């Protein structure tokens, strides 16, 4: 008897975004753009931290430095879009998705294990962000915003691939994929329980 193949979504994610999110997020463009801006700012900070902690590792400085520049450029793009729309940058909010995600890290693991998890957590956040941007691109009626989020979707997919490639550069591919599947399963275990909110990117 053949087992039923597991359905895969964007970049291998186990569960898609709740379709209600795209509709809700359009109600308050200022809130979703504000959260998006701070997500880009935090991505910049996280990558800088990764470079600082693992600067001796092959490819970390050379491959991630351009991503720092790109992520900060994304922050500026979102700020410009807010200004273009006559909107103001609101206050930063706690990212419940990322807060929940990092709880999946092993406690008391080695520096090497922490390094692998950091790379894979970054890959996971980029994958989910890509999927969210794809959802907006496919569902928004605003042509300008469709084009805006399409660019971010492509960029996040590229970053996702880079973090996985870095993981495979430093660890055996089989070990990386075992741990990556753990993160896919872990994210799926809580993503549907998070409140569907239009003022959050994640």
From TrEMBL:
Gene3D superfamilies the record matches: 1.20.1260.10
Any one biological process term the GO annotation gives: tRNA modification
GO molecular function per UniProt: tRNA 2-(methylsulfanyl)-N(6)-isopentenyladenosine(37) hydroxylase activity
Entry-linked InterPro entries: Ferritin-like, Ferritin-like_SF, tRNA-Hydrxlase_MiaE
Domain of life: Bacteria
CDD domains assigned: MiaE
Name of the molecule in the record: tRNA-(Ms[2]io[6]A)-hydroxylase
């Amino acid at each position: 008897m053949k087992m039923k193949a597991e359905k895969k979504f964007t970049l291998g994610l186990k569960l898609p975004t709740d379709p209600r999110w795209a509709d809700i997020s359009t109600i308050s463009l200022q809130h979703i753009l504000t959260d998006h801006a701070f997500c880009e700012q935090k991505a910049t900070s996280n990558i800088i931290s990764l470079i600082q902690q693992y600067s001796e590792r092959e490819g970390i400085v050379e491959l991630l430095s351009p991503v720092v520049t790109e992520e900060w450029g994304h922050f500026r793009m979102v700020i410009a879009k807010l200004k273009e729309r006559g909107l103001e940058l609101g206050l930063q909010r706690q990212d419940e998705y990322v807060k929940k995600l990092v709880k999946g890290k092993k406690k008391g693991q080695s520096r090497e294990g922490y390094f692998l998890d950091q790379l894979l957590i970054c890959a996971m956040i980029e994958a989910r962000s890509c999927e969210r941007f794809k959802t907006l691109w496919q569902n928004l009626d605003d042509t300008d915003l469709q084009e805006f989020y399409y660019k971010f979707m492509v960029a996040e997919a590229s970053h996702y691939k880079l973090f996985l490639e870095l993981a495979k550069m430093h660890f055996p591919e089989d070990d990386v994929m075992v741990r990556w599947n753990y993160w896919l399963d872990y994210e799926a275990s809580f993503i549907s329980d998070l409140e569907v909110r239009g003022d959050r990117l994640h």
